[in-house]
Structures are given as C-alpha cells and as structure tokens.
TrEMBL record:
Keywords: Exonuclease, Hydrolase, Nuclease, Nucleus
Organism per entry: Exophiala mesophila (Black yeast-like fungus)
GO molecular function: exonuclease activity; nucleic acid binding
Region: Disordered, residue numbers: 1-51, 116-152, 184-207, 229-253, 524-560, 602-643
Composition bias type Low complexity, residue spans: 136-152, 615-630
Subcellular location: Nucleus
Designated name of the protein: Exonuclease domain-containing protein
Protein family according to the UniProt entry: Belongs to the REXO1/REXO3 family.
Biased composition (Polar residues): 529-538
Entry keyword rRNA-binding: no
Length: 733
C-alpha cells in the first residue's frame, strides 16, 4: 500500500509542510530485489549503476565434517533440475549458474588437493588469462574466486574441500559404485511422474540380441578369463595369457578356447540396435543358454557334474551328467541336485564335453548364462561372445552386488525356480530362466530391468528440465572406451577418449561448443615446462573434431551443454587404489595371503603428504608374514615408480587447474574422487571369500584363513576407510 508522508525541506519546516505519496517498505524491498537480481550489466537512463549478478557457493557457519556421496548429486539436481536445496551448502543466485561440470578423479585425496598451490606456483602456464572470461574482477563475491586472479585456478579447490563418504553398507561391509551414487537418482514420486511427459508407463523397444553382448572390459571386470580373439593388441593378449598361466586357466591346465579366429567388433553395435516386430531378434546368430552343476572332488576343487544347453527356441540340445576324474568328496546335493545315483553309470568326461562344445560353438554363437564365469571355469572353456544376465540386469545398488537368478526370475518372469529343496537345483530349469530373461530383455529393450526400475539417470532428469529461455537442457558424457554403452547412454553427447588429455579437451568442447572450443583448446597445455617428452594430443590437434575421438560426430551447438560428467584415469592407474589383488591359487601359501602397500606408495605418501609410512593393519590370522619397512636404499625400479607417481600427481592437478581457468564463466565445477584406497578392503574381501570357500569342505585346523571377529572388524574398518573420498567445488568467474 502507499502512505502520505510530509516533506521536510529544512530545520525550520513544520508539520504543515508539503505532503507526497511514498511507497511502503514491502514495495521498496521488492524493487530493491529486482534491481539486485538484474542479470545484465548496464546503466539506466538516470545513470544509476545496476550490479551484475554473480552466483556463489559457501559452506554454512558449521561446515560439515563429511557429506554423503548422494549430496553431490542433490547439488547438481538443485542447480539444473528439480532437486531441493542442499542443507550443507549455501547456493546464491543458482538461476545464474549456466553449467555444471562434474569431474571424477579416482586416486585423489585431500593431501593431493592441498598441494595445488605449490604446483601452481611452479607452473608458469597456470597464470595465463582465462579464455572466454567476460566478468570484471570486482564482480565476484569474496568467497567466489575471480577468474582473472591467481587464486581462481590455482587454489580454488584447495579452499573448498569437503570429505565425502562413498556409497556402501557398513553393516555388511560393502562398498557400492560411486558412479551410480552420483549418476542414478531415486525415482520421482508418482505425482511428479504423472506430470512428466516422458515418464509414462514403460514402452517396449525391441532390441537385437547383439546389443547385449558384453565387451571385453565388462568381462574383465567380472573376472572372466578372456578369449584370445578379444584382443587386437598383442601386448594385451600376452598379458592375459600370462595371467591365465599363473592362475591355472591355460591350455597346460586343461583349458580350451572356442574356435573363433578373430573378434568381430561389428557384431556389437555402439548403441542399442532396434528391430521391427517383423524382424528377427537374432538373425544368423546362434544363442545358447547354458548352466552347469558342480561337485567337490578330493583335491578340494569344484568339478563339472552336469551340463545343460538350450537353443534360442527353448529346445534342450545338450543335457549330460559328467564323471569327474577324481573321487567325489561332497555332492552338495542341496545346491547341485546331484546324487551318487546320478553318476553311478556315467562315463562322460570333461574332455568329452569340451570336444562336443568345440563342435557346437561357432563364431556365430553367443553363450547366455547367469554369472557364467563360474560355469566356464567348471568347463575350462573361453568364448568371446557372452551375455550374462547378472550384468544386463544390474543390481539396484550397483557393482559389486549382483542379483540372484532366483530373484530375477521371480521379479521379471513371475516364476518360482530352484524350489527343489533337498533335491537341489535343476540346470535345465536355470538355463531356461536365463534364456527367457534374455528374450524378455530383447523384447522390452535395453532399459528394461536396469536401474531405471528403482531409479533413473540424472541425465534424463536434467533433460526434462528447462533453461531460463525455455529450451531443453543438454548433457555430455566423456569417458574412455564406449561411453554410449554404459551410464552415459542417456547423455545428449557421448565423447569417447583414449587418455586424460583428451578427457579435458572433451570437457572444453562440450562446455563451449564446437564453434568456440578451438580457442579454448589452443590455450591448454598439459605437459610440464621444459619437458623432453613428446607434446600432448592437445598441442598436436588443431580442432575439437580432431582433438577428441568420438562415436557420434554430432556438432555440439555454440554455448555448449548444461551438464558434463567426465573421469580422469591416469592417477588411478598409477596409484592402483582400485586394483583388485591377483587371484589366489587353489592352495594358497602364507605369502599369497600376505598384504602390504607397494613400496612406491609408502615412499610417495611420506614425500608428498608429509606423513609417516603406513601399512594397513591386516590381522595376523590372515597372514603369517610381516611387512618390513622400506629399505634405506630402494631399488631403482621403486625410485622410478615414485618419480612416475609424483609426475602423474603434478600433471593431474595441472589439468584440473587449467580446465577450471578455461571453462566459461558461471560454471559450477565439482571434483570428486569416488572412493579412497580400496586395496586393503579388496584384499580382506578376498581372504573372506577364501575362508568361506574352504570352510565348506575343510576342518578348522586345515583352513588357510581363519576368520574370526578380529578379521571381521578389520574388514569393517577397511570398508569405512575405502568409502572415505573427497570433493572440492567452485564457480568460475
């Protein structure tokens, strides 16, 4: 409302002075807010300056000691989509944040991030003026680094570090996927679902079976022995051959490889291959659903006792019992369904089955199974074309968890299997469940039975949101290999890379768009000053199209996309924090059960972080060998490894700093590590698995690993430490 107020012209004025209309306080406040929120830097007709609005972030007065990994996802969705405001961070003027870049850097920790200042001072290239910066230095609030200052791209993330607790379950000592924690969000409420035009009931999209063949990377991650034809690099093939020799999975141990001379990559489409209802789901391919049952023999190894194979039409083409070469120690009837009577008159051997399979399986064959690696281990056989239902129907909480075949059959087929009770499983029944799950997947499409059933990709949620100008938001997923086959399939643009330099180039390309990215790439150098090494790809390439190899050469529009996710790999590869321990032999010695961090990490942590050498505590019952302290005069290879790690840390920080200095203004940048050092946790997990394996068949005094409450507490502690990650964030000026 308006009010009458007298006008006083001087000290002699009285209440009889002139009166005029004035606005109420609420109206004046609203007008001030409009002026404060004006997005453009210009002057009004009366030359009154209107301030340029800058977004900003700052921790609350009580900065959290730790946040959950999901909090980073919630921050992204709050800024770009329909998320709620975070409780641990204040975000000012979020509507003026133009982009969000999330960069995952496994192997990163707080000490490494805090070294950014020192590394920046040693690197003269980080002080260069930022391309595309159009905001004046004075426009940035105190807690938002200005792009034109040294602090903006040398120590911004060192000033905004927050510990992050990775996804997992402390009660069961499980560590879940940090990728899923950030990229898969909970399903929206039914009310929101009804209002969203693309969240209607599931629409089937018939998909060719070749779209679900696992890549060699998928198989390697699932610990499959890899068929020689899957390698086009002789060095990688030799490394896999050496690994198979050391783990008794080679020809010298009775293994055979199917007769596939070379891997036909064209059979695996880069994106789901849709087919019409009148077209075949398999064409000339020959899928076979396979399931095996095993028994325990006198050498304490699991041996094949039955094999069942069904063709694509459900016809049983092979169902045979197999006589192990050694006496049977335990039939495990409650699991295998095998009894002494079943094998009493059987003379078929493993070698007979292998010969029959080598005749049956051709280069056109695809093997279908659930956790098929265990069946192939029993068959001592490899094949390059595999579809594993435990992978194409992923667990809702991500790897390493996997759903059981019984659960999948009940949920998606509405079928009860493995109800034999004391009679155990039926391999034909299990093979048929696998076959029907794969057929259903082909009929419904690649999204059927995925995490979308319990959550949805944040890429899809962001795509539903609108920009201030009404246009749909776009995203980019930048990763090694084939990003369109994994969690990045919902992204507007997928950019495949081969090294970390190309990852940075891809982020800049996605952020600026193809018409402007060349200038940004030209300002970016990632090699150290005065380095004698060959120049990086960033220096050799002259255009964004040539800088980053990609599966879909679609032009990214000017101005780039709204959300970018990318991951650097080189620091993780050098540190090996996520590298699982080598497989244990059948009869592990105390040396096989011992564990200590590589000596280069002891030396490097002490040198770079100012800490003492530290070896995770592995209970003595798990290992009979002790860890010696690093030698006073380390071998030359340890020194070289330490220098390599130091160089990789420096290059990784320089890449992050220079990326930040070259991104467009008003970009929220989030760096996160995912997890901490996983090696102690993975080793204890391996020892626990060895204990469970031996406990079924050995007396306590013969166990190589004795698992007690001490070991259980050590595993829980290692799990908590493995979940300890770190994040840093800032907004470019």
């Amino acid at each position: 409302m308006t009010e009458l107020e007298p006008t006083f012209n001087g000290p002699d004025d009285t209440a009889d002075g002139d009166w005029h209309l004035v606005e109420s306080k609420s109206n004046r406040s609203r007008k001030r807010r409009k002026i404060d929120d004006a997005p453009f830097d210009h002057r009004s007709n009366d030359q009154t300056p209107i301030r340029t609005v800058q977004p900003g972030i700052s921790f609350h007065a009580s900065k959290p000691s730790q946040i959950q990994a999901k909090a980073l996802q919630e921050l992204v969705l709050y800024v770009l989509a329909d998320g709620v405001a975070p409780t641990w961070l204040a975000v000012r003027n979020k509507e003026h944040i133009d982009k969000v870049v999330v960069l995952m850097v496994p192997g990163l920790d707080k000490q490494t991030l805090e070294r950014s200042k020192a590394i920046a001072h040693d690197d003269p290239t980080t002080g260069s003026t930022k391309a595309y910066s159009h905001q004046p230095k004075s426009s940035s609030p105190p807690d938002v680094p200005s792009s034109s200052s040294d602090a903006s791209h040398t120590s911004w993330f060192a000033q905004n570090i927050v510990p992050v607790k990775g996804p997992g379950d402390s009660g069961t000592s499980k560590v879940h996927s940090p990728l899923h924690a950030l990229l898969i969000s909970p399903s929206q409420e039914q009310k929101q679902r009804n209002n969203a035009t693309d969240d209607r009931p599931f629409h089937s999209s018939r998909t060719h079976i070749s779209s679900f063949i696992q890549s060699s990377d998928d198989l390697r991650e699932a610990e499959y022995p890899i068929h020689p034809a899957a390698f086009d690099n002789p060095r990688d093939a030799q490394l896999e051959q050496d690994r198979r020799e050391s783990t008794f999975q080679s020809a010298s141990s009775g293994w055979v490889d199917t007769k596939v001379p070379h891997f036909d990559a064209s059979r695996i489409p880069p994106s789901p291959k849709l087919v019409r209802h009148s077209q075949s789901l398999v064409d000339e391919l020959k899928p076979y659903a396979l399931d095996c049952e095993m028994v325990l023999t006198d050498d304490d190894k699991y041996s094949l006792a039955r094999i069942s194979i069904l063709d694509w039409h459900g016809k049983t083409i092979l169902d045979k019992y197999v006589k192990p070469s050694l006496p049977i120690k335990n039939y495990f009837t409650q699991y295998s369904g095998i009894t002494p009577e079943h094998l009493a008159d059987v003379h078929t051997t493993l070698q007979d089955i292998q010969a029959e399979l080598l005749s049956l399986i051709t280069p056109d064959s695809i093997l279908l199974g659930h956790s098929l690696d265990s069946d192939l281990n029993a068959l001592k056989l490899t094949h390059p074309y595999i579809i594993d239902t435990s992978i194409i129907y992923p667990h809702p909480r991500g790897l390493p968890l996997r759903s059981s075949l019984k659960f999948l059959a009940n949920r998606y087929l509405k079928r009860e299997i493995q109800k034999g009770g004391a009679n155990g499983h039926d391999s034909v029944e299990d093979a048929r469940a696998v076959l029907d799950l794969v057929r259903l997947k082909c009929e419904k499409g690649s999204k059927w039975g995925t995490l979308d059933a319990n959550g949805e990709s944040i890429l899809r949620r962001i795509a539903r949101a609108k920009r201030p100008d009404g246009r749909e938001r776009q995203s980019a997923f930048i990763e090694y290999g084939t990003p369109e086959r994994g969690l990045g399939r919902e992204a507007t643009f997928k950019i495949a890379c081969e090294d970390d330099d190309q990852i940075i180039q891809g982020v800049l390309r996605a952020a600026h768009g193809d018409t402007a990215a060349s200038e940004a790439l030209a300002t970016l150098t990632t090699t150290e000053p005065n380095s004698n090494e060959p120049s990086s790809n960033a220096e050799q390439d002259e255009s964004p199209e040539s800088a980053t190899p990609q599966q879909h050469p679609t032009v990214i529009p000017p101005g780039g996309v709204d959300f970018i996710w990318a991951r650097l790999h080189e620091l993780e590869s050098i540190r090996g924090w996520n590298t699982p321990p080598p497989p244990l032999p059948e009869n592990p010695t105390s040396a096989d059960l011992a564990f200590s961090l590589p000596s280069r990490d002891h030396k490097q942590e002490a040198a770079t972080n100012g800490t003492q050498n530290h070896t995770p505590s592995i209970p003595s019952t798990c290992t009979s060998t002790s860890t010696s302290s690093p030698k006073a005069n380390p071998p030359l290879e340890d020194t070289n490894a330490s220098n390599t790690l130091e160089k990789t840390i420096t290059q990784t920080l320089q890449r992050i700093q220079k990326l930040y200095s070259t991104l467009p203004a008003r970009t929220l940048v989030i760096i996160y590590s995912g997890t901490g050092d996983m090696r102690p946790y993975l080793k204890l997990q391996q020892l626990h698995a060895q204990y469970r394996k031996e406990f079924k068949v050995k007396n306590w005094d013969r166990l190589s690993v004795k698992w007690t409450d001490v070991e259980q507490q050590a595993l829980r502690s290692a799990c908590d430490k493995a979940r300890g990650g770190v994040a840093a964030m800032g907004i470019t000026g």
